[in-house]
Amino acid sequence: MRTVVIDSRGDFRLERRPSPVAGPGSVVVAVRAAGLNAADLQQARGDYPAPAGWPADVPGLEVAGEVEQVGAGVTGFVPGDRVMALVGGGGHAERIAVPADLLLPVPDGLPWEQAAGFPEAFSTAWDALVLRMFDLMLARARLIGTTIRGRAHAEKALLAATVRTSVVPLLAQGRLRVPVDSAFTLDRFADAYARLAGPGKFGKVVMTPWPSAPGP
To answer: Which of 101, 102, 135, 168 is the most exposed place for a label (fewest CB within 10 A)?
Structure first.
């Protein structure tokens, strides 16, 4: 498969790597679109390393695509299911292995580009403004910031479960929308990262690794 990697100089480049295999409790997602985030640029600079268990040199924190393989012990997902997820890294590739308990369903009719821009922004907002903005009120405290990437898997899975039941339905009903600034195919990764780093954006920058069927 094709994947973006961060080389020893902190530059992005495209290379081929073996496709992942679904282990116990995980699925392989054939990526239809992947969101870009400032964390990808920070990772390339060496300021925001991937947590343990995720590729150290492949950026990409949010993906949307179709379930391609289902690992042992996974229930509730079958090949062909439309899913999206907030991941610890490795999303800027044609395929990625994801723990099944991090997956969110993609509502019918939602474009892949919008689905790819949903997990990071809306999970972070829900975590900061809803799960955390009541505890803050009781303490009469101020919100400084929050990150999800480095948390324990159990905490990430719990957040995914609440987003799955409380936020995804709003997306399916059209009460939430994901603005997309621009989309680039995987072979134009340099243009995508340049757009991410540049000024004047409104909405998500995404990559679409599947202009056609991916290679092995």
So the answer is: 135
User: How much is the pLDDT for 96?
Assistant: 97
Dist. CA 140–CA 135, nearest whole Å: 8
* Residues 133, 143 contacting (CB under 8 angstroms): yes
Q: How confident is the model at residue 145 (pLDDT cuts 50, 70, 90)?
A: low
Neighbours of 126 (CB within 10 A): 16
- Count Cβ neighbours within 10 Å for each residue of 186-213 and write b for 16 or more, e otherwise: bebbeebbebbeeeeeeebbbbbbbeee
The CA distance from 177 to 114, in Å, is 8
Residue 167 confidence class, pLDDT cut points 50, 70, 90: very high
Residues 6+ apart with CB under 8 A from 131: 159, 162
Query: Which residue in the block uniquely carries the two structure tokens 């409380």?
Result: 166
Please name every residue paired with 204 in a beta bridge, in sequence order, or none if there are none.
180
Task: Give the whole-angstrom CA distance, residue 189 versus residue 197.
Answer: 12
Cα separations in angstroms, 125 against 41, 95, 163, 213: 21, 27, 10, 34
Q: Domain 2-117+178-208 has what CATH class?
A: alpha beta
Lowest mean pLDDT: which of 24-38, 55-69, 112-126? 112-126
Sequence-ordered list of residues with C-beta below 8 angstroms from that of 165, at least 6 positions apart, any chain: none
Going from N- to C-terminal start, the domains of the chain cover: 2-117+178-208
